[in-house]
Structures are given as C-alpha cells and as structure tokens.
Design brief:
About 60% of the residues lie in helices and about 15% in strands. It has about 300 residues and is an alpha+beta fold. The strands form two sheets. The protein has a four-stranded antiparallel β-sheet. Strands 1-3-2 form a three-stranded antiparallel β-sheet. Helix 2 crosses helix 3 and helix 3 crosses helix 4. It is rod-shaped and about 175 Å long.
C-alpha cells in the first residue's frame, strides 16, 4: 500500500489544527483590520480610470499578501515549503471573502494614489480555510487513488500483454508439436507400408527360391535319369517312356539331320530321320549340342 503524499498529510493536519483554532477562547479578538497605501505611476496609454484600476489591483494584492503573512504567523507555521503552500490557500480563500474599503485616493495626471483597508473576521477566514483544506485533502486523496488505479491498470495491461505473448509462444510450440506429430505419424505409416512390402517381397523371394530349388532338383533328377537311361539305339518313344518328356527340343538342321532333346544338364541327340538315340552332349562343351555329341 502506498503512503499518502507529504502534501496530503499536511492538508489533513491543517484541517485538524484549523478545526481547533477556529473556535477561539472567549475574549480572543476575531476582527482584524489591514491598511495599506499604494501609488501607481501611469504610462502614456493609461487613463485615470485604468490607472485607478491598476492601482487598486496592486493594493489589493499587497493587502492579501499581508493577510497571508499574518494568518501564517497566527497558525505558527515554520516550514518554508508549508508556508508557501498555506499562503497560496489563504490568498485563494481570503480573495473570496475579503472586502476592500477605499479610505483615500488622488490623481495628479502622473500618479494615482490610493489608500484602502481590509477588515477580516479571522474566525470566518479560518473556517473557510478549513473547509477548503478538507476539500483539497479529499481531492488529493482521490488523485492518489486514481494514480494507484492507473498504475494497477497499467500493471494489469502489461501482465495481460505478457500472458498474450506467452500464449502465442505456447500456441506456436503446440503447432510445431502437432506438425511434428503429424509428420511422425506419416513416417510411421510409411514405415508400416515398407514393412508390409518387405514382408511381401521376402515371401515372394522365398516362393521364388523354393521354386528355383525345385527346378534345380528337377534338373539334377532329370540329369541323373537321363544318364541312367542313356543307351544309344533306343528310340525317343522308349526314352520318353523311361524318363518322361524333355525340357526342350532343338532341331539341328537338314545338313546334320539330328534332333537334340534336353534332360537336365545333358542333351540326348537323336537321328533326325529314325529318331534313334545316337549320343549325348554334356554341359560346358562348346558348340551346338548337335555338333558336340559324345559317343558312348
């Protein structure tokens, strides 16, 4: 909580003090007369009336200053800053209730002389001053509270801005996290599809490998069967009845007049006209199986 400003404390203290001294003890003088005189030097532009008005204004200002000095002494105010503050309040209050009475005036064309007095009821002045100070105190307190409210509003606004800034940062981070989560989900889906594809490829490879192994076994079997059944002079029908159909057949042409039939790793070569087995061709032998035929 903020402490009241020194000027506010002064107003409150004066209000209490004036409430006491404005009720003087019996027999204490309440009326006070202030008399001053003033000569105003007229300028070339002044008329008698303007010179008189200016002379009265200056005289009244001096009278009010004198009243202020008197009341400050009456109130026994010692601090210079406090005296200046109270003097201003006294001039303001006194100007509203004091009546100036002209005692003497004269005009010689160059100077306007005036003598006047102010008669004041000090109790009346003090009561008016007391009311003014109370009003000023309330106004000062209101200003202080308004200042506190403005400060609180500024702090609240600053905190609200900070909250909005932090909220924006959180939203940005959440958006980044959502993007990362979305990307991660896409990657997980890609990985899942890749794994399924890998399983399919692996399964297909195993099927191919199994078929290849079966083919190789069939080739080895057919090779063994062909070598076991190989007897030059047997016809193709007889060979077929023993080891089955060949894997492939190759016609060697009219000039050679042979027909080669593949069984695994060997070729059984038959006469082109009689279809009688003549010889076999082994793998790795250069040239056509019709020309590289081995005799038994």
């Amino acid at each position: 909580m903020h402490a009241p400003a020194p000027r506010v404390l002064l107003l409150l203290l004066l209000a209490v003090f004036l409430a006491v001294v404005s009720d003087p003890a019996p027999g204490r003088a309440a009326q006070k007369v202030f008399v001053r005189e003033y000569s105003y030097r007229a300028s070339d532009d002044d008329s008698k009336n303007s010179a008189r008005r200016k002379a009265l204004e200056q005289l009244r200002a001096e009278l009010l200053r004198e009243v202020g000095v008197y009341l400050q002494a009456y109130l026994e105010i010692e601090s210079r800053s406090d005296r200046e503050f109270v003097a201003e309040e006294i001039r303001t209050v006194t100007a509203g209730i004091a009546r100036t009475e002209i005692l003497e005036e004269a005009w010689d064309g160059s100077f306007f002389y005036v003598k006047a007095q102010i008669e004041l009821d000090t109790e009346d002045v003090l009561r008016s001053l007391n009311r003014a100070l109370e009003e000023r105190s309330s106004s000062a307190e209101l200003q202080r509270l308004s200042a506190l409210l403005a400060t609180a509003n500024a702090e609240a606004s600053s905190r609200a801005e900070e909250v909005e800034r932090l909220k924006a940062q959180v939203d940005a981070r959440n958006a980044t996290i959502r993007d990362q989560e979305s990307r991660l989900q896409e990657l997980e889906q890609d990985l899942e599809r890749a794994e399924r594809r890998l399983v399919q490829v692996d399964r297909a490879q195993r099927v191919v490998q199994s078929k290849l192994e079966q083919i190789l076994r069939d080739i080895d079997r057919m090779t063994e069967e062909a070598l076991a059944a190989y007897r030059p002079g047997l016809t193709f029908d007889e060979i077929r009845s023993l080891i089955g159909e060949p894997r492939a057949t190759k016609w060697c042409g009219i000039s050679i007049n042979r027909r080669a039939r593949n069984y695994g790793d060997v070729w059984l070569v038959f006469d082109g006209s009689t279809d009688i087995l003549q010889c076999l061709a082994r793998p790795g032998t250069h040239g056509s199986p019709c020309r590289r035929c081995e005799q038994p």
